[in-house]
Amino acid sequence: MFHGPSAWFLLLLLIIPPLVWWMVRRKRETAISFSSTSWLSGLTPTWKQRLQWLPSALRVAAIILLIVALARPQEGRKHTVVDSEGIAIEMVVDRSGSMQAMDFELDGQPVDRLTAVKDVVGKFISGDDTLSGRTSDLVGLVTFARHADGIAPPTLDHPFMIKQLDNTQIALNRNEDGTAIGDALGLAVEKLSALGEEDQRKLKSKVVILLTDGENNSGDLDPVVAAELAAAMGVKVYTIGVGTKGRAPVPVVDPFTGRRTFQMAQVNIDEQTLKTIADATGGQYYRATDTESLEKIYNEIDQLEKSRVEAQHFVDYRELAIEPIHAGVWSIPPLVLIAFWLLVTQVVLSNTVYRKITE
């Protein structure tokens, strides 16, 4: 490409054909008086005679290169500088026994609550047709039943995080079952606060998305106290109450036949506590009764918590008239230098090998 206004110099190339025509015509008109030249027609031309056009060709080539150089040919190299401020998100997921209630669906088939949560959270992190994903965000995972477990620290290694979520199992053992909401929230806040100084500097905000289908009945830390701790540490908490309220179908295995059947079991969500947690931290409480509403909730949170990503694009131009041209492994001298060499060669040839006595 050529530099905008300088490209008009390319119009000077239109004078090249008339110039060549004038040079050829002028050469033909050069003559000396002699009685007869018929006997010269039988002589074999020497290499000097065959290449006598060379000085003129070198001159024309030099003029063409100088005109092109005036038009300022350029080579642009695009550069992009990305400046981003991400969000640290701690996913806090309930895996208590009540999460096996089969009141959600995937692809038209009933699934337990945890399976639906895995699917929706995976799309929230990785993105799909409607979600862009959390590419620039640190995402961590805390699960809880009777105890809270820090499964994955806030990380940009999202495939690892999603794999850990997929490996999460519902707590079916009585000794393991329970709902330690306060401990889980406290652990999530601790992990967000423990991020390195460099990560903290690049963060736009810190967020916890707490999802549960029950009431706090285990652990040492009260959920409201944990919310106050989150607020003090500048962590916003979105809470999601998941599942139907009242009775829900829960799979049970007959100890005698081994057959899997469903029984209606009493389930309850402490919505008031979840609302209190959200209000105390500047977050919001959501209620998801099916897969569709759960997807909408994560879509809304995705819109509320946007990372700031600014990309600056600029082009670095190289002036090919005065800078070498790189073509693969080859490096071609600047156009001006080539034109100079052609003119020097033309002058040397015209004053030595092709020196003329008369014009």
UniProtKB/TrEMBL annotation:
<feature type="domain" description="VWFA">
    <location>
        <begin position="88"/>
        <end position="301"/>
    </location>
</feature>
<keyword id="KW-1133">Transmembrane helix</keyword>
<dbReference type="InterPro" id="IPR002035">
    <property type="entry name" value="VWF_A"/>
</dbReference>
<dbReference type="InterPro" id="IPR036465">
    <property type="entry name" value="vWFA_dom_sf"/>
</dbReference>
<dbReference type="Pfam" id="PF07584">
    <property type="entry name" value="BatA"/>
</dbReference>
<protein>
    <submittedName>
        <fullName>Aerotolerance regulator BatA</fullName>
    </submittedName>
</protein>
<feature type="transmembrane region" description="Helical">
    <location>
        <begin position="6"/>
        <end position="24"/>
    </location>
</feature>
<dbReference type="InterPro" id="IPR050768">
    <property type="entry name" value="UPF0353/GerABKA_families"/>
</dbReference>
<feature type="transmembrane region" description="Helical">
    <location>
        <begin position="327"/>
        <end position="349"/>
    </location>
</feature>
<dbReference type="Pfam" id="PF00092">
    <property type="entry name" value="VWA"/>
</dbReference>
<keyword id="KW-1003">Cell membrane</keyword>
<dbReference type="InterPro" id="IPR024163">
    <property type="entry name" value="Aerotolerance_reg_N"/>
</dbReference>
<keyword id="KW-0472">Membrane</keyword>
<keyword id="KW-0812">Transmembrane</keyword>
<dbReference type="InterPro" id="IPR011933">
    <property type="entry name" value="Double_TM_dom"/>
</dbReference>
